Amino acid sequence: MALKFIRIAVIYALLGIGIGIYMAASHAFAQRDTHAHANLLGWVSLALSGLIYQAFPYLAQHVLAKVHFWSQNIGLPITLVGIALIYGGNASLGEPFASIGSTIVAVGFVALAINIFRKSPGEA
C-alpha distances in angstroms, 32 versus 63, 70, 88, 97? Predict the structure, then answer.
């Protein structure tokens, strides 16, 4: 599970870098929020989650880790499309995508939080 998180994090890093390069080359920075979300929610959050699951393997073995993984990877692309539409000038279409996607992402973070705070094996 840890490696899955790290691998998908790298995909989001490449996406974020690609958006950044496009913005720099075109001198058009309207998609800076899409760039930031791909990097922070994608690359940084998923890579850190992978490291957490590597350090605490019992967390990775729980069903909540799968809920976390799939919520992030279903919700984040939807969120990114919504943000891109909003800052591309189509807020009426983008806002529902961003709202729905970010709610799904939040479910993933709640799953991570519950998983981390539940009693660990051997904990008194």
Answer: 34, 25, 11, 18
